[in-house]
Amino acid sequence: MDEELERVLDGIGPRLRTLRRDRGLTLEALAATTGLSVSTLSRLESGKRRPTLDLLIPLARAHRVALDQLVAAPASGDPRVHLRPLRRSAGSVLVPLTQYPGRVQVFKQVLAPREPKLVKHDGYEWLYVLAGELRLVLGGAEFTLRPGEVAEFDTGEPHWFGPAGPEPVEILHLFGPRGDQAVVRTAPDAAS
Question: Which own/partner contact pairs does 180-184 have at CB distance under 8 Å and 24+ positions apart?
Answer without folding.
Answer: 180/23, 180/64, 180/101, 180/105, 180/123, 181/23, 181/24, 181/121, 181/122, 181/123, 182/121, 183/119, 183/120, 183/121, 184/119, 184/120, 184/121
